[in-house]
Every structure is written in C-alpha cells, then in structure tokens.
Amino acid sequence: MPELPGEQFRIDLVAGVDPVLVILSGEFDLLAVPSLQETLEPLSSRRIEIDCADVRFLDSSGLGALVDQVRRSRLAGGHAAVIHVPPAMLQVLEISGCLDFLTDPPDDPAPGNM
C-alpha cells in the first residue's frame, strides 16, 4: 500500500473480512490524507474498522480525513469507526470533541463481533 516520506505513513488493508480492516501506521498528516482517501473512498458503503494502534502522530488534516470518511461511510449506507486509539491520538480526539463520533460502533454489529 502507499507509503510517504517522513515517518513512513502506511496503510494496510484486509478486505476479505467484515468489517474491512484498515491498519494505519506512522505519521498521519497532510501528506498522508490523499492516500487514505484513495484507499477508503471505494469502501464507503461497507463496514470499515480503522486501526490506529501504530499511528505515531495525527495532525488536524489527518483528523479531518477521519471525520470525512466516517461521514462519507454513513451517507453511503456503510459504517466506519476508529479502533485501537493510542494515548497521544486519544488526547487529540478528546480535545477536538471527535472521540465519540469516530469510535462509535455500528448499531448492527457484524455476525461474530458481538
């Protein structure tokens, strides 16, 4: 998947499961946003879990991209949620008021995920 200079932002996709698992790692900043959008836009109508356990940095551009994807998924009849939020990123989500919006589980969990 796409990698960018700096702290090597990386996107790994596990598409054969429900929900689709998207694993982010590295610095999620302005340079990484287009890669995330390109990867997730075609999946908007599906259930998506965005695993951020290995995200080392999140700026306002990355936060905005996550918010946009969650909105886009909901409008397309899918669902996206951020999982495994590291402490530094958790602080950003809490301060911005986006924590509940981004980590909201689907109303109808996938079979086996209850």
From TrEMBL:
Superkingdom of source: Bacteria
Domain annotation STAS: ranges: 20-114
Record protein name field: STAS domain-containing protein
